[in-house]
Amino acid sequence: MPLTYLLGLSAALHLYIGARIVPPFPGAGMATLFALLLVASALMVPVGMLSRRLAKPPVSDTLAWVGLLFLGLFSSLFVFTVLRDAVLLLAWIASLIAPAGLALDGLRMLTAAAVPVLGIAVTFVGFLNARRTAQVKRVEIPLAGLPAGLHGFTIVQISDVHVGPTIRARYVEGIVEAVNRLNPDLVAITGDLVDGSVLELGAQVAPLSRLVSKHGSYFVTGNHEYYSGVEPWLVELHRLGIKVLHNEHVVIERGGAKLVLAGVPDYSAGHFDEAHRSDARAAVAGAPAGAVKLLLAHQPRSAPAAAEAGFDLQLSGHTHGGQFLPWRFFVQFQQPFTSGLHKVGRMWIYVSRGTGYWGPPKRFGAPSEITELRLVASAV
């Protein structure tokens, strides 16, 4: 997307906020400061989004940091401005019904002041939430007929880390340390690990080689791997000791019981490379009959095919749980589930909110997670 187009779009959207908030803003000095903030945001949002085209590291990383911070702030300012206009419209309608009941001028000033205060507060809290190491979320998966040897088997899932201009090796190291403290039976990485090439980000992803579990670390591609040069990344992950499951499975044995761990490429991968088309049936072909079957698939949309192929559990990510309000309410228009544990037929599906973040360093109302899933026997 050309810079000029992005600048024009950014200017138009910021102009809407400015036109609605600056004139009624109480205090000329504060109104001017807010107007200058909007001008800076209108310029830096597109620059941050196109930073890799405009400069080389480390300058591009700095531009991305500044631009993405402004993008997070802009998103909240825009949403709160729209909500303010809705409130003022309702108040105006109410004033027609009861003319003496509302002081519209006072409400305009109060809500104009509230928009930047709320926008900055949400962005600040969201930044703190995004930059901390994800907390561990523990989930029990009840499976009927689970063999005794697999009762208590633990899978630690990380997803949607999005290593890139604002998520670097130190952030990844924190995730690795948190995962290793859990001493899992295996580690599952369900896609969207990177936003950039191996040349750019290989050193930033390298800490994943220190993941420790009893049965190894496994990876399936997300859509962002296909934007970032998927084949070199598959080679690099293999070099780091992480097994890529590409429409295939491995059999894990514990206590005389067998667990089939399968993986498919991203739901949309076939659009990039026909050889990467997601195929749940191929992934489980030849698996031992009667074994517990677990599928790693980046997008929740893979669930119907997985259920038809006979899987007992699917682990997915992709949605980020919406990452920050109000976007979590829009995920359902693109995916069957936003986050958490659900059922598709007899199959369970767990959708992670993600372990990192994408775009703005901001999480609000959808905290990141490192998920510890424990298989337990169920009577039904």
Concise account of the structure shown:
The protein is of the alpha/beta class and 380 residues long. It has helices spanning 3-21, 28-49, 51-54, 59-97, 104-131, 169-181, 198-205, 223-227, 230-239, 280-284, 303-308, and strands at residues 135-144, 154-158, 186-189, 217-219, 242-244, 248-254, 257-263, 292-296, 313-316, 340-344, 347-351, 369-378.
Give an overview of the whole structure.
The model has no long low-confidence stretch (mean pLDDT 94). The protein has two domains: 3-131, no CATH class; 135-378, Purple Acid Phosphatase, chain A, domain 2 (4-Layer Sandwich), CATH 3.60.21.10. It is an alpha/beta fold and 380 residues long. Helix content is 42%, strand content 18%. It has helices spanning 3-21, 28-49, 51-54, 59-97, 104-131, 169-181, 198-205, 223-227, 230-239, 280-284, 303-308; strands at residues 135-144, 154-158, 186-189, 217-219, 242-244, 248-254, 257-263, 292-296, 313-316, 340-344, 347-351, 369-378. The longest helix has 39 residues, at 59-97. The protein contains eleven helices and twelve strands.
Q: What's the CATH class of the largest domain, please?
A: Alpha Beta
> Helix fraction?
40-55%
What is the N-to-C succession of helices and strands?
HHHHHEEHEHEHHEEEHEHEEEE
Q: What CATH architecture of the largest domain do you see? A: 4-Layer Sandwich
* Oligomeric state of this protein: single chain
CATH superfamily of the largest domain: Metallo-dependent phosphatases
What gyration radius follows from the Cα positions, in whole Å? 24 Å
Q: How many β strands by DSSP?
A: 12
Low-confidence stretches: none
